[in-house]
Amino acid sequence: MHEETVYDALDSAHGGAGQWAFGTGFDEPLAGVDTRAPDGVDPTDLGGYCLMLGDDALVLAQRLTEWITAAPELEEEVAIGNTALDLLGQARLLLARAGSLGVLGRSRSLATGSIPDEDALAYFRDPDEFRCTALVAAENGDFARTTLRLLVAATVRLAVVTRLRGSRDPVLAAIAGKAVHELTYHRDHAARWVLRLGDGTAESHRRAQDGADAVWPLLADLFTATDVERRLAGAGVGVDPADVRDEVREVLTTVLRQATLRVPDWPAGTAPRGRTGVHGPELTGLLATLQGLARAHPAATW
Fold first, then answer.
1. How far apart are CA 116 and CA 68, in angstroms?
2. Strand pairing partners for 20?
3. Is the Cβ–Cβ distance between 5 and 285 less than 8 Å?
4. Gyration radius (Cα) of the chain, Å
5. Which band of pLDDT confidence, cut at 50, 70 and 90, is reported for residue 281?
6. What InterPro entries does UniProt report for this protein, alphabetically (predicted)?
């Protein structure tokens, strides 16, 4: 009896045809799903919105993987890796959804050919084509700052996807339904670490407070909606980020106070930057690492 190895499985997954070396090699994530935009919804808006959510997940996943082999303990290294994989799975579905709505054809720098849409969107867009927020693009800092950033990002994202379960777009609703369980774990895991650090030693408390003080300014444009978000929220498809602001503040305030940390001043709202493609150099550096191999060998096969 022939015992198939993992390599045999990968090679035969598509009839033995060569696979793009940087893709997953698995079935298209939205295969067999009706991906038409709901009635009355502009596909461009919906695709752009999926990019916003997908880019946040992709970029934060990349930041978290920077901790692999550097986490403070082995168990936490596994937890960070699993969190990054959860976010990567969300990113894949959301970028595939964006590609199904024609975003792929409108992006000026994408390679064409047999590359799956979600991979092309991840690897072949320039920084100003990404729609992630500064919160996820910022550099990690120390472990305490990373933990505070994960707490904030997971709390915001969980509040959004919880509402997206009722989206008029059935694809987005299904993605959100799965993501709720993952993000609940991410938020609670980060909250436990914040409590442990904030109410621990004098040094861990100092680092946790410094982390909160560094992360809070990144919320400046987080709750300011773009025109796309407003239109989709009005159509029952998306969520206006302003609608989750009070919930997020309540959760974060509760966790920090329980951790004996001072809640930093909430920054004044500003016009959205990351959502419109305006980023600092930190995203350029992150994408150089994320995209380097794929761009050096476009359409490579195994």
1. 27
2. 301
3. no
4. 20
5. very high
6. Aromatic_CoA_ox/epox (IPR052703), Ferritin-like (IPR012347), Ferritin-like_SF (IPR009078), PaaA_PaaC (IPR007814), PaaC (IPR011882)
